[in-house]
């Protein structure tokens, strides 16, 4: 009697091209994206020409070579040097408005439904702008994007670790003033080493007392003690990156038990050496543990990435199933800094559309996820 051959298991995604197409079609969020790291290359050069600014790079190929040197697995401080270039053309209101509009449009084109854009207003004051005028300009751009494309956005005001706590307090007051008017949160960004978050505690006390959401860059380039400070000294509702959380099991359990989301950014985490490689990134481990992990771009220009790229990289590297991707995407919608009722509407729509798209995966491959277990 001829023995039957075991059934050959195929990828539920089909080939790489089809997988990418499906991932692009899925509704997504991007909760961790820096405005000054996400310009279009053409816009960088156009703004420089309009403003009479001489850049250290002359064209898009030169820009890519420049960025490649800063993102070749070096360090976070080296990576951050790219922002000297982008910020040079972002000191006028028209520039901020344009960059914000275009960023939202680019996200819309890959079906990002909700995006939170973060930036530090104090880094845009070398021209005519005042702190509140930077916020007004960004909000105008995002409002126009919402009108044109239907994308929903919020902004996050960032303090910077190496700048003075007094400035952070001014920025906290700015976030409070615009809370409910387009600003959805307050953040602390920048190099972690030697610049502890607890030094900016007064700013976080100010925003928390005024019902402003808090996220903090932590555990990216420094150990889990940075995450503990973000949680217990700053009252963080979300953690930016958190790659080194696994070094402290008790803090990991605390984050998991309290459903504190992690804003993970695979490409930039490898570029800044927050993790040695994609394969060694803790993303899959965190997802299996039940942590509320989200995927984000961090910096679309500086890291040469998109949300579709980040999802595709995660699927390829960690062998994520359609149901894994569904969980990651829903984590993003659940973690958004939007009012509960509004979030419920976003989430219900996302669930319906994600499930419709994933049903197409099963029909196309002839196998459901249960068949592959």
TrEMBL record:
Enzyme class: hydrolase
Needed co-factor(s): Zn(2+)
EC number of the protein: 3.5.4.4
Pfam families from the UniProt entry: A_deaminase
Adenosine deaminase domain segment(s): 27-348
GO molecular function, one term: adenosine deaminase activity
Coiled-coil stretches: none
Gene Ontology terms: biological process: adenosine catabolic process; hypoxanthine salvage; inosine biosynthetic process
Database matches in SUPFAM superfamilies: Metallo-dependent hydrolases
Family per similarity comment: Belongs to the metallo-dependent hydrolases superfamily. Adenosine and AMP deaminases family.
Name by which UniProt lists this protein: adenosine deaminase
Taxonomy of the source species: Bacteria, Candidatus Eiseniibacteriota
């Amino acid at each position: 009697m001829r023995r039957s051959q075991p059934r050959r298991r195929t990828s539920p995604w089909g080939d790489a091209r089809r997988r990418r197409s499906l991932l692009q079609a899925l509704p997504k969020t991007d909760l961790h994206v820096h405005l000054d790291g996400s310009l279009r290359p053409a816009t960088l050069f156009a703004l420089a020409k309009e403003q009479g600014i001489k850049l250290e790079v002359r064209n898009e190929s030169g820009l890519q070579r420049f960025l490649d040197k800063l993102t070749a697995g070096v360090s976070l401080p080296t990576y951050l040097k790219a922002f000297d270039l982008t910020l040079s053309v972002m000191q006028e209101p028209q520039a901020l408005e344009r960059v914000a509009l275009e960023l939202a449009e680019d996200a819309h084109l890959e079906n990002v439904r909700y995006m939170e854009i973060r930036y530090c207003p104090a880094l845009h004051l070398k021209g005519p702008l005042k702190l509140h005028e930077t916020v007004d300009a960004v909000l105008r751009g995002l409002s126009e994007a919402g009108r044109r494309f239907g994308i929903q956005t919020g902004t996050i005001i960032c303090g910077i670790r190496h700048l003075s706590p007094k400035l952070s307090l001014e920025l906290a007051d700015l976030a409070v003033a615009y809370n409910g008017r387009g600003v959805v949160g307050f953040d602390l960004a920048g190099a972690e080493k030697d610049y502890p978050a607890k030094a900016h505690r007064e700013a976080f006390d100010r925003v928390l007392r005024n019902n402003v959401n808090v996220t903090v860059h932590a555990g990216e380039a420094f150990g889990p003690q940075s995450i503990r400070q973000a949680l217990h000294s700053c009252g963080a509702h979300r953690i930016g990156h958190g790659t080194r959380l696994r070094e402290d099991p008790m803090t990991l359990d605390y984050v998991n038990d309290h459903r504190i989301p992690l804003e993970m950014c695979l490409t930039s985490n490898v570029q800044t050496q927050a993790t040695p490689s994609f394969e060694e990134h803790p993303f899959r481990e965190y997802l299996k543990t039940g942590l509320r992990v989200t995927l984000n771009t961090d910096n679309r220009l500086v890291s040469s990435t998109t949300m579709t790229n980040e999802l595709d990289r995660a699927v390829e590297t960690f062998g994520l199933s359609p149901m894994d991707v569904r969980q990651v995407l829903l984590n993003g919608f659940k973690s958004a800094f939007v009012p509960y009722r509004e979030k419920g509407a976003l989430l219900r729509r996302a669930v319906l559309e994600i499930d419709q798209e994933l049903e197409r995966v099963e029909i196309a491959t002839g196998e459901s996820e249960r068949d592959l277990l």
